[in-house]
Design brief:
The structure is a homodimer. The first copy, chain A, has helices at about 10-30, 35-40, 45-55, 55-70, 80-95, 100-110, 115-140, 145-165, 170-180. With about 190 residues, the first copy, chain A, is mainly alpha-helical. The interface of A and B includes residues 115, 158 and 160 of A.
């Protein structure tokens, strides 16, 4: 829903609402944040937030994805191997910071929205990933399909982070190498 | 915490509390269930639930893992390949039922408990998995380590389920084959 309204005043409001939501999530944890609090902190009417997002989960989901796409953009390093390795290392760095795991928990907590809202919220990130894979195909490389990137790179990194298991650059390297070895991608 | 109290009256109470929590989660979704409601439905005092679990997330987490370990036990098919294939197919069957995804969402929603509580709650399931891998090693097979099972089997299956992507027996078979191909496990 939000993507139809970017630009001008609407974009400024959206950005201040996300900033307020982000600060509140950091201060109180994702489960304790309410719509009226976000509205107050952002200096907007709660009714307009309800109109635009329906509920706080939907807003928090958009906020978390917006943060991901802007703060953690996808690399453009000139080869699919370099791109995937760099991206995996950024995820490793992210899950090992003090703040980012809070936004990962926010994504999970907000995942109670309906499936179509989940996909709509994730769409900007999926677009970034598809663009990275497409750049590789244009260069004539054999890039893995999106689903294999999810299965063999994102899923293990994030599942380990959730379970509190070790997530480091050695793992990032190993997962990337294995992903590219499947069906000879990266060649 | 619960594992120290199994047996006798305590086990009966625990089982009726989980049954009540499970019914409420199915009826209302995990985010809407409260401790007093569970207590009332199970016919116990809410104070005893607070004393034993602290908060509703902690209780729901134990309930979801208890359901997993009892309703979806791990296979014992005589070889690691047969065990992993059978287990992957059971996960596929589970995520494609009407009810089980609600319990997956419950696990995520309840994941806001402290990390040490998360690990304590998961321990019974980890024990089942370790026992399956150990049976394989005792037979002289080269079973994959637990972390590789998480990375290459559980993570992709559950991440796909969360994202609403296709989860079927073909995928189960492919993931199992690839997991066993790593370092020549399963030989």
């Amino acid at each position: 829903m939000s993507s139809r309204r970017v630009g001008g005043r609407s974009a400024i409001v959206r950005s201040s609402v996300f900033a307020a939501a982000s600060e509140l999530v950091m201060a109180k944890g994702p489960l304790a944040v309410t719509m009226p609090e976000i509205a107050q902190r952002a200096g907007v009417a709660a009714t307009s937030l309800y109109r635009r997002w329906g509920d706080v989960s939907s807003l928090l989901l958009d906020m978390a994805v917006d943060r991901l796409t802007r703060k953690w953009p996808l690399p453009d390093e000139g080869s699919i191997k370099a791109d995937l390795t760099c991206w995996a290392r950024r995820i490793v760095a992210g899950v090992n910071t003090a703040d980012e795991p809070t936004f990962l928990r926010t994504l999970l907590a907000a995942w109670s929205v309906p499936p179509e809202r989940q996909m709509e919220a994730l769409a900007p990130r999926i677009e970034q990933i598809e663009a990275m894979l497409e750049r590789s195909r244009v260069r004539g490389e054999k890039a893995p399909p999106l689903e294999e990137v999810i299965d063999h790179l994102l899923a293990p990194l994030y599942m380990r982070a959730l379970l509190g298991l070790n997530v480091d650059d050695v793992l990032a390297e190993r997962l990337t190498t294995r992903l590219l070895a499947i069906d000879g991608a990266g060649a």
